[in-house]
Specification:
Elements lengths: L3 H6 L3 H11 L10 E4 L4 E11 L14 H6 L4 E14 L3 H9 L4 E8 L2 H6 L4 E3 L1 E2 L9 E5 L3 E3 L2 E3 L4 E5 L2 E5 L4 H23 L4 H4 L2 H4 L5
Parallel strand pairs: 2-3, 3-4, 4-5, 4-6
Antiparallel strand pairs: 1-5, 2-7, 2-10, 8-9, 10-11
Helix pairs in contact: 2-6
């Protein structure tokens, strides 16, 4: 029997975004998060990390940012790093990619920059980020929390929420609404597949994309 994650992997971000609209849920990240390494569709449960400037006088954690999340993650998990859109330093790097790949993590999504992207690509580890930069996080940013609720490019994300990322963007689904949203997305995708066949068969697009198409995301 297919799990919710299996079903989500067979969809794309546009169908899921439309389903979120239909269900009245906000979940599409509006930042320009793009695949910087790896390819295809990444889907799974969110393991969250929040980065930022540590409060003055705070004691150093004694470990590198992101490492606790990597150790706690595995297959069907996607590490989601909230870095408030920072591009002056990387919120993820090559050794983290190698460690996550070794644990079977599906991929990582950073609201900010990442580095060592060629290294991640060489081991087939998917990285979604705003851009690549060479600057290290050391001395520039810190891990403030992990496995806690975060804001990800305007979307509230809690640990265990579902996420899907592809070339079209990144979309989050609250865990409590996952069944409803994925079922709606599957129906939307099936309807659009029929429409695509009709266009391929020669039906005018004005007929195919009529009232029924406009009502796809209706409640």
């Amino acid at each position: 029997m297919s799990t919710l994650t299996d079903r989500l992997r067979r969809l794309d971000t546009c169908a899921v975004s439309d389903a979120l609209d239909r269900c009245g849920v906000t979940g599409a990240a509006l930042a320009q998060l793009k695949p910087q390494a790896g390819h295809g569709v990444v889907a799974g449960k969110a393991v969250t990390v929040r980065l930022g400037v540590a409060p003055a006088g705070a004691a150093p954690s004694g470990r590198h940012l992101g490492t606790a999340a990597v150790v706690a993650s595995g297959p069907d998990d996607v590490i989601v790093v909230a870095h408030q859109g920072r591009t002056d330093c990387a919120g993820w790097g090559g050794l983290l990619s190698r460690a996550a790949r070794a644990r079977g993590v599906e991929g990582v999504i950073i609201d900010g920059a990442a580095r060592d992207l060629a290294e991640a690509d060489s081991i087939g580890f998917p990285v979604w980020a705003l851009m690549g930069v060479p600057m290290t996080a050391r001395g520039r940013t810190s891990e403030l929390a992990w496995n806690e609720p975060i804001d990800m490019a305007g979307c509230p994300v809690e640990p265990g929420d579902l996420v899907i990322a592809d070339v079209g963007g990144v979309v989050f689904i609250p865990a409590a609404r996952a069944d409803e949203v994925i079922e709606a997305a599957e129906k939307i995708a099936a309807t659009e597949a029929v429409m695509a066949e009709a266009i391929h068969a020669g039906r005018p697009v004005t007929e195919v994309m009529g009232k029924s198409y406009e009502e796809l995301t209706g409640k």
